[in-house]
Write a structure and sequence with these properties.
alpha/beta, four-stranded mixed sheet, globular
């Protein structure tokens, strides 16, 4: 037995499914997960000595790659000063100022410990500010594991949601309306039916939790117009896209300004951090200035703040995003060519260094389209790619990422090995 196999057996005796986040169990692609010994640059090494070019990048958090020396030094310096205070520190002010400089729509913000915390707080604030209870989310968009977000569409495209997990009260699920991504007409219909009850529309501006789905050019402007017309707030969940698809996130890329934004992943440099923020007049409602309560023992953690600040400063170097996007474009074009050479229908696209592939002709505009992907072929491809040293997300419905640590040699290696792996997967 491998060391990873032994660890997985032990883990299953003390952790549900042997993991601390479901997708890590590899159930969507079969087989067992490998256990990481260390990460360095663009690669992960497992406990059995195997090495993989990594396109998961801690689910998008590591835009600089693993163990970047600048971030490592910032973290070491922070730890020397102590790793939690329960009191304010200068790093949280500096990071907030850097975030606001990059995303001016966040006039004020609050640091929390995860993307889930950030989206929970943003929705609570939206409900308080509008005096309304309903929210609209989109099929296939994931906003964390809070009860309000674990909701899927019913039989109609404009129905009230139903609980998507046991333990979510139906009464709470009924406060979440759902619509297909890229379908502003359905959102307009929901506003027509419930206009005076809808507090907010929350959306991943580029979907990353159903695979990668780009928005139609007129989709987000339409959401902005509908929210303005009906007095609701527009919330961009940029936990994944923030500082990833562009220096100023998706809102800069799309030219649409939300009322509230949630951030995570890159903003903490790979440490547990979340942010929610927006217009100052909204954020003044948060305690202790206002009545909307939210708190956290570890919020503004000095080590996480140092890692996030070091990361954002590195990504601010001239040409950083342009070089990263060019490298991603080469990878995506290469994968599309590989699929075509094997006669496999594929839809491959990216925004900045965030990318995804569906094994279906496309176009993929929403979650229903995404579900047409060939999950069985992807599972075989994933297994063959892993055996050849390429780590793709262990699910057909997750976005992938390129970091600044990925070299041209990494890209060439990946395309070559994915080509061979797809041949093996088709043969299987």
């Amino acid at each position: 037995m491998t060391r990873s196999g032994d660890l997985f057996d032990r883990a299953k005796r003390v952790l549900p499914g042997g993991v601390n986040s479901p997708v890590r169990a590899f159930r969507a692609v079969g087989g067992s997960p490998f256990f990481v010994a260390r990460g360095h640059g663009s690669s992960l090494a497992d406990v059995d000595g195997n090495e993989y070019v990594d396109y998961v990048c801690s689910w998008g958090a590591l835009i600089l790659g693993h163990a970047h020396p600048v971030v490592r030094a910032a973290v070491a310096q922070a730890v020397e000063r102590g790793w939690t205070y329960g009191a304010p520190c200068d790093a949280e002010v500096e990071l907030a100022e850097e975030v606001r400089r990059r995303m001016p729509s966040l006039e004020m913000m609050r640091f929390v410990n995860s993307g889930t915390e950030a989206t929970m707080a943003a929705v609570r604030l939206a409900r308080a500010a509008t005096g309304r209870d309903l929210i609209i989310k989109f099929d296939g968009c994931y906003h964390g594991h809070a009860d309000s977000f674990l909701v899927k569409a019913g039989s109609g495209v404009a129905t009230f949601g139903l609980p998507d997990s046991p333990g979510v009260p139906a009464e709470l699920a009924h406060l979440t309306l759902t619509a297909p991504f890229n379908d502003a007409r359905t959102v307009a219909d929901l506003f027509h039916k419930h206009a005076d009850k809808i507090a907010a529309v929350i959306v991943e501006p580029y979907v990353g939790n159903a695979g990668f789905i780009a928005p139609d050019p007129d989709f987000h402007p339409a959401l902005r117009l509908l929210c303005d017309r009906h007095g609701a707030l527009l919330i961009f969940d940029e936990v994944m896209t923030g500082f990833r698809v562009a220096a100023g996130g998706a809102q800069q890329q799309l030219g649409v300004t939300p009322d509230l934004t949630t951030l995570g992943k890159i903003v903490g440099g790979g440490f547990p951090v979340g942010v929610y923020g927006g217009r100052a007049e909204l954020m003044h409602r948060i305690a202790p200035e206002g009545p909307v309560y939210q708190a956290g023992t570890m919020s503004g953690n000095p080590v996480a703040m140092a890692a996030g600040l070091a990361t954002l400063r590195e990504t601010a170097r001239p040409g950083f995003y342009e070089a990263l996007e060019l490298r991603t474009d080469r990878l995506v074009a290469g994968i599309a060519a590989v699929a075509a050479s094997h006669g496999v229908p594929a839809s491959v696209s990216h925004a900045g260094s965030m990318w995804g592939i569906y094994l279906t002709p496309g176009p993929v505009r929403n979650y229903d389209d995404a579900r047409q992907t060939d999950t069985a072929l992807f599972a075989r491809w994933h297994k063959a790619a892993l055996a050849r040293g390429v780590f793709l997300a262990p699910s057909s419905f997750e976005a992938a990422f390129v970091s600044s640590a990925h070299s041209e040699a990494d890209i060439a290696f990946t395309i070559r090995e994915l080509d061979a792996a797809l041949g093996e997967a088709r043969g299987g």
